[in-house]
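Quick one - first record:
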Amino acid sequence: MAYDETTFRRPGESTGETDPAAYRRRVQLDDTGGNTLDQSLRVPVTSTAEEDGRDRLGVHLGWEVVLLVAAGVLGFLLWRESSAALQRPALDVLLVTGAAIGLITLGAGLSLRAGVPNLAIGPIVLAAEFQFAENGDKGILQALVPALIIAAAGGLIVAVLILVLHVPGWAATLAAAFGVITFDQLRVNAVVVQGDWEPTGRAFVLFGGFAVLAVLGAGLGAIGPVRRFFGRMRSSGDPAGRRGLAVVLPVVVALVGSSVFAAGAGVILAAQSTAPIRPGTGLEWTGVGLGLALLGGTSAYGRRGGIFGTLFAVIALTLFLDYQTRKDLQISIFAIAGAVFLAGLIATRIVESYGRLAGAVATQDWNAAPSGGLDPSWSPTMPETWNTPAQPGGTDRWDEGPWGTNR
């Protein structure tokens, strides 16, 4: 005897649909009645903000304490190796190097927060170095301003390409990186730096400017509406789906800003360098910038980031570079970039796992409110008085017959 036979069917129940899965599909897709049972069977629909939840800044602050301790340990090792390294004039060189690395990291972090990681920042750094090396004798403005304008124009072009075609940011910026590398490698021989501008005379101003930008930008990014607006390119649902006009401003600001920061860093590095600028790819600086941004707490998926992480990560790497130079360790910059990047990926997993509130998306499985068909006076709580049901008048039929107990 089947369950769906007439004997077991409620009066007035339809026999046209007996598949429970079909009923659930009908409830989820077609039914708009809104009763409690139907809503529990429907696929929950939540907003992007509810899916991502709020930032839990505690994990960022805890990670930043770890970075601060690491920077302190490296500073102690450098001081023990040479106490003069933390005194002027060596301190000025250290601060200028930190400012240049910090600008590269700011550009990388800005593009990551917007969901369009700029892989061209390293080649842009090298291109700006060549620009200053070849034109530094004309004055700092004539060498710096064209580099900034060309970098901003290139970032704008890449941003338009991403917005029109809606392609991943890493793919478009990688194509731009190949174009900039081609420009960098047009030089066959090393270029001697022209001009006499010394950034060490403004070391505290340069590093202080980077520190203020890093903390101020991170503080603005921690504000919920700003964070959500700036990270609208973060993938949700179909990654190929267009995000609308709301992503135009964040993408343009991120790519133009990151390119300008990279160009400024290249000019500072070239002005500080005592050796000729050699042709290359510049991708090592891309690895350093993105790796430090990730290590500082910026998520590789976009939007999420800390407050002081970028500053502490840049300080730690700057101290390590000076320490390994004084120790004559001769570690390749590519190896350093790879190690920093790997540590940054671990930091990203920590940030994404513990940086959001648990249960940001709550599914309503039970609604204690009465549905429209019940008495409005119904309450989900148990009544104070409970009457024991009366015992049935008859006896169990099992006690009768040839096997009954009354026999």
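second record:
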Amino acid sequence: MPATDGLPTVASACAPACVGNVGVGFDILGHTLAGAGDRARVTRIDAPVVRIAAIDGVVRELPREPGRNTAGAALLALREGLGLQHGFELALHKGIALGSGMAGSAASCVAALVAANALLDEPLPREALYRFALDGEAVASGGRHGDNVGPQLLGGLVLATATRLVRIPVPATWHCALVHPHCVLETRRARAALAGDYALGEFVAQSANLAQVIAGCWRGDATLVREGLKDVLVEPRRAPLVPNFARVQQAALDHGALGASISGAGPSVFGWFEDVRQAQAAGAAMRAAFAEAGLDSDVLVGPVDGPAAQLLA
């Protein structure tokens, strides 16, 4: 990071993929997963503006107008929120496909904020970046939900409320297998599938399941997680949007998954496992189930307690 008067003027950061919702925690629970991510290179400039200079990688056709780009909107919010007199120029490298259910929009947003934060006269703690990340995420999803940006800021499994982030401990041996089919499911379309009425009993059941998952993670109790990791609220409405979902989910369960569901808005599907070997075997079987529907797919396997966004040398 070149510096002037002791302050850096350029910084780069990367943010990992994320499993949003984790089935039972719609919009409030997520965890990061190594193996894919976005990178941002941010330059501090004298002009009081945000510019997007370049976008490359697996996605190139994204808005260059800052207010219509998740990363650009987050930097605009950072400037306004802190009353900064200087601006930022941004270059994005996309490593996560759009509409994949792997939090690509959020990853761009968080990577940009972490890089820009390193260029501030007084950098903020990660938690203080959360509100600006929510502003960026809203551009892509239409809502200020933190189940992706929260985990990407802190790493691991995170409970993300409207104003607070709580990192939830998870046994180091627990692994996630995520399978991303080569098709696109736009977040707004997936959210539209959730319109309509819900029964009170569904909310009670989902709340009980979420409580069991969080308690099970905190206690390292796989039995509690296995009982709770069942989405009775959102999954039934989104499952028809994911090709061959029932077979992919069953493949994970057949290989010992603690639970399996849709990652974020989909179409990726994830499963949690007690060890890496189970996760690897399940990933191959889940990929084969997508192949039955004529879809090639990518498999990511990594600890549930995944990495946080980080600055790059």
